Amino acid sequence: MVTTPTPSENTGSNQMNAAADVSPLVASMALPQPLPSDFEPAQSPTIKAVAENLHFHYGKFHALKGVSLPIMQNQITALIGPSGCGKSTFLRCFNRMHDLYPNSTYQGAIRLLPDDINLVGPGIDPIAVRMRISMVFQKPNPFPKSIFENVAFSLRVRGGFSRSEISDEVERSLRSAALWDETKDRLHEPANKLSGGQQQRLCIARSLASHPEIILFDEPTSALDPKATRRIEELMTEIKSQVTVLVVTHNMQQASRVSDYTAFMYLGELIEYGPTAKVFQNPANQLTEEYISGRFG
Amino acid sequence: MSKAATTPVTLAPAAAAAGSLRRNKRYAAVAEVVLFLAAASSVLITIGIVAVLTYESASFFEHVSVREFLTGREWTPLFEPPKFGILPLLSGTLVTTAVALCVAIPAGTIIAVWLSEYAPYKFREALKPALELLSAVPTVVFGYFALQLVTPLLQKIIPGLPGFNMLSAGLVMGVMIIPYVASLSEDAMRAVPIALREGAYAMGATRVQTAWKVVFPAALSGISAAYILAVARALGETMVVAIAAGQEPTLTIDPRDKAETISAFIVRASLGDQPHGSIGYQSIFAAGLSLALMTLVFNIAGFFLRRRFREAY
Amino acid sequence: MATLTDAHISGIARRRRIDLCFAVAGAVVLTLALGVLVALVTNLAKDGAARLGWDFLTSFPSRRAGDAGVKSAIVGTALVMFVTACTAIPLGIAAGLYLEEYARKNWFTAIVEINIANLAGVPSIIWGLMALGLFVYWMNLGRSILTAGLTLGLLVLPIVIVATREAVRAIPQIIREASYACGATRLQTVWHHILPYSLSGIITGSIIALSRAIGETAPLITIGALTYIAFLPPPPFGERPWHYDVESRATFDTAQRTQPLEDVSRDISGSHDSPTPSLRDGEITFAWRLDPGTPITQSRLSLPLSSGSMSLSDLVSAIDADENLAATISRAGRLRITADAPGEDPGEFCITNDTTGLIEAFSIAPGGGRYGATDWIMSEFTVLPIQMFNWVSRPDSRFQVNAAATGLVLLTLTLMMNGIAIWLRYRLRRSISW
Ligand SMILES: Nc1ncnc2c1ncn2[C@@H]1O[C@H](COP(=O)(O)OP(=O)(O)OP(=O)(O)O)[C@@H](O)[C@H]1O
Ligand SMILES: [Mg+2]
After folding, report:
1. FRET label pair with C431: which of A117, A279, C14, C93, CA 20 to 30 Å apart?
2. What end-to-end distance do the CA atoms of chain C give, in Å?
3. What are the tens digits of pLDDT across the range B58-110?
């Protein structure tokens, strides 16, 4: 447990005090912030999206406190941090999942590049956002329909596809999710008959079908055994040539194995961000080091 | 854009996608309005009930004073000279309800305790549907049962019992309500956390003690809701009393007498086809309004008790 | 208290006995309750099974108990249930979906919820009064199949709503999120996921709702369903046997008239203006009104038109022979009726009541084209529980046998429906796979 000697004036709880204590450390992040609006990184990789001073409230509860973070295109960015620090909250801002529930408020911006639209801005339709940014959940959640219909759903939602386009697209997505060989003979069987790992790959195929620009993974392997976990990890590395990946994980090995960039969050704030190797081998922040080395969390 | 260069299929152009999104959202908005209207219609129905009852009753009370209605001891709105005292109907309603509750509450409670605390899982799963079947029997069939089987049996036990009487109707009505009391009470008792039971067992309590001294009190607000809703059911029950209790308004508290309940009066009067606007027609609605108010009180009390109970666990 | 004494031990034994006693008592009470169900079924079967046969199911009611059947009641029940289902199921599903998937928590939602809970507790007889005031008189739908179906549909609406809500609530939130994450609108999520996945729960609830509606008697009596119907509603596009025109309503007038004529004609037209199946099978059914000094009754009378013109005494004896009408004719002894058999030329048919003046005069022509597709919905009707109630209410024990047989039919239908619902629910619980 982190103890904080300096109480902050506008916060009452112990937790908040801890946050106030570490906030100066955010300044030592690998990237300058906020990013200039004409930010155009010269070298590869390019930035796909960038969160700028993002705040999020669940009703009165202040869950994200000014997070600024770039997401690199065709790279895997891992979000790590102790339970309850706001990783899922942050992730779900990207496809406006919070809009499903009342009393959620966003402040700040998540700019999607290159068109530079603020995903959480007013006047942006959450459904249009979700059509470009899809999501894979913690627990495999295939629809209780056939394998085919699961993958076809995001196309049906969009409408305007012929039958052959849909079936081509289903095949492509299943191949991308490394599930085609296992399922090509039983596309019309219920998806619930698949194993947990296959179901999760099906969910990945489902989110790939609509050619998203970013896929959000929220602890995609925490309900799976090690072998299935390994498959999903391989898969994430394979699909990153097609999409940008943002993944929340509790598993340090996983983060270091698959991700290119790592962000460490704590109590609703971003503590450290940088290339994964740097964050894991040479963390700039003491909290990060303590967390990575398993001393708390 | 990060679409893979190898993508074999081209997606529909962006403009078309935006168009379909707009269309989808329009459908969604229309659907929301339609569904909202469906939900709101339930409020309209209530307004309809209240409006009809009060409108027709208001005309009734232009002819009949509220005082006469509430204190008169004779109810003969369809004959000359008409008399409009609701008391005989009220007594019939209350006596049959009381008889029914004397059956339904003890039996329903015992069954509920037994099902939730004693019965092995398999038993419970088999018996609850059986009880449901009992409550699915049409009331007119129960009426036949009361008139043709229960009354003759009772006549053997109670000499001089008339062929139509409130006792038989009330008893059968009670049996009819048992499943209702049992299933609502059982729900309430099953919602009591296991930990509470384990605490009692750990102190050496037997099942009876656990059931009656721990689970029953903990579930009391849910169980009393069941009782109160049962009262409302019994008050409004119609066909059994219309068939077996005799259709004669009688001011009596002796369940062996024949009598008429409010609901049975409405049935009898309706069978005679009261012309629209006549005092007989209006009297049906005045009687109905009294019945509706009585059941409303119990229903609302039951609703809030149940909700309080649900919140407690 | 460190040790268990003998007193404690015997206390335990005593408590065990009490425990056992209660276990037995509970089982006995339960058995008794279910015993009533068995007694009820066997009693009905004992009284009515012998009467139950093809003839019983395919005959119209009759004044002779042995000839009577439930044909019109079965058809009426089926048609009323059809309208009920068309009312309650779509409305209930829509309202349930709105409350679970759309409604925000606000005062309106709170009111709707309390309201639905209260509607579920409204006694069925009160629904009948609502329908009488609203549907029969205010909307002028008459004592029709439509009125009955709407009434029962609204009566069981809360059951469908509650079943829908429960089934929808059982769908895990994560399924909804998956759908929204694919970019679905709320409607698409409801249509592609929520509705299909909750369907078997909704079907179960709907069957239970209909099984409740099928046995409802009181509200239909209140709206004035007939207890004696010897015809079937007009089939869609079926041939109309007679065609009639109301020519005049006021050709007769008598000095003794005690009631304004308009009132009389209004009451009459109530039963004639509707596209009634009145003129079928060579019979005419009409309503008439008795001396206003006596309790006012409206009733129906079947006249065999094929018998040509009829004298009052013939009519009186014809009506007297029909015990459905015996009680009323005695008070209306001064009915005068002339009837011509419809032939090539339109005949004239006139019914008057000397006390109240004219009742109706109209002409009848053979051949009347075809019925419309939905004429049946405005037809008068009877249903099984009403037929049963009618027979139960008669002192003649031979009619009690008919009542028992009708009860058997009714009971079979309801128990079957409930059985299906219970089975569906059981299967559903086993196949749930979230
Ligand atoms: N719907 C909600 N309403 C209110 N507070 C919430 C809600 N969801 C999450 N929170 C709070 O917001 C904070 C961040 O939650 P979040 O789910 O983002 O954490 P997390 O980092 O994903 O944790 P975990 O690793 O356990 O999934 C927590 O303190 C949590 O209690
Ligand atoms: Mg999380």
Report:
1. C93
2. 52
3. 999 998 888 888 888 888 887 778 888 899 999 999 999 999 999 999 999 99
- How far, CA to CA in Å, does C183 sit from each of A206, A241, C152, C366, C369? 12, 23, 40, 64, 55
Q: Which of A112, A124, A172 to mutate to test the interface with B (most CBs of B within 10 A)?
A: A172
Asked whether the beta carbons of residue A210 and residue C197 sit closer than 8 angstroms, the reply is no
| A97·C178 Cβ contact <8 A | no
- Distance CA(C178)–CA(A210), nearest Å, equals 14
Distance A175 CA to ligand 2 centre (A): 28
What confidence tens digit (pLDDT) does each residue in C206-233 have?
A: 999 999 999 999 999 998 877 666 667 7
Protein residue with its CA nearest to atom 1 in ligand 1: A58
Which CATH code of 1.10.3720.10, 3.40.920.10, 3.40.1010.10, 3.30.450.40 fits the domain covering B68-309? 1.10.3720.10
Which residues on A lie below 8 Å from B4 (Cβ)? 241-242
Whether C366 shows a pLDDT value over 70: the answer reads no
State chain A's mean pLDDT as an integer: 82
Look-up of token digits 């596009």: C237
Who lines ligand 1 at CB under 6 A? A 58, 61, 63, 81, 83-89, 250
A230 CB-near residues (< 8 Å, 6+ apart) = none
Average pLDDT over residues B286-296: 93
Task: Answer yes or no: do B34 and C94 touch at CB < 8 A.
Answer: yes
Interchain contact C19–B (C-beta under 8 A): yes
B263: nearest CB among C99, C125, C415 = C125
Q: Which residues of A touch B3 (CB under 8 A)?
A: 211, 242
Q: Which atom of ligand 1 is nearest to the CA of A219?
A: 27
Q: Residue A68: enclosing H or E segment and its boundaries?
A: strand A61-72
**Cβ contact (<8 Å) for A97 and C180?**
yes
Rounded distance, CA C420 to CA C413, Å? 11
Residue C318's pLDDT band (boundaries 50, 70, 90)? low
How many other CB atoms are found less than 10 A from the CB of residue B135? 17
Q: How many CB atoms lie within 10 A of CB B58?
A: 13
> What does the pLDDT read at residue A215?
93
Which residues of A touch chain C, with CB atoms under 8 Å apart?
A: 95, 97, 100, 102, 127-128, 130-131, 134-135, 137, 139, 141-145, 153-154, 156-158, 192, 203, 206-207, 210
Q: Which residue has the higher pLDDT, C176 or C53?
A: C176
Name the residue facing C27 among B114, B238, B243 (closest C-beta). B114
Q: Is B313 on the interface with C (CB under 8 A)?
A: no
Q: Which of B172, B189, B285, B187 is nearest to B238 (CA)?
A: B172
Mean pLDDT for C40-54 is: 89
Say what the pTM is. 0.82
Boundaries of domain holding A221:
47-292
C294 touches C331 (CB < 8 A)? yes
- pLDDT top residue among A51 and B208: A51
Q: Judge whether A31 lies within some domain.
A: no
- What number does the ligand 1 atom closest to the CA of A85 have? 21
For residue A19, tell me if it sits in a domain.
no
Burial status of residue B124 (CB atoms within 10 A of its CB: 0-12, 13-18, 19 or more) = middle
Q: Which CATH number fits domain C71-225+398-431: 2.60.120.590, 1.10.3720.10, 1.10.10.60, 3.40.50.12780?
A: 1.10.3720.10
Contact A157 C184 (CB under 8 A): yes
SS3 content of chain B, % helix, strand, coil (to 5): 75, 0, 25
- Report ipTM (2 d.p.): 0.89
Regarding predicted confidence, which is higher, A296 or A182? A182
pLDDT band per the 50, 70, 90 thresholds, residue C2: low
Residue ranges of the domains in chain B?
Answer: 2-62, 68-309
Neighbouring CB atoms inside 10 A of C45's CB total 16
Give residue B16's pLDDT: 53
CATH number at residue A97: 3.40.50.300
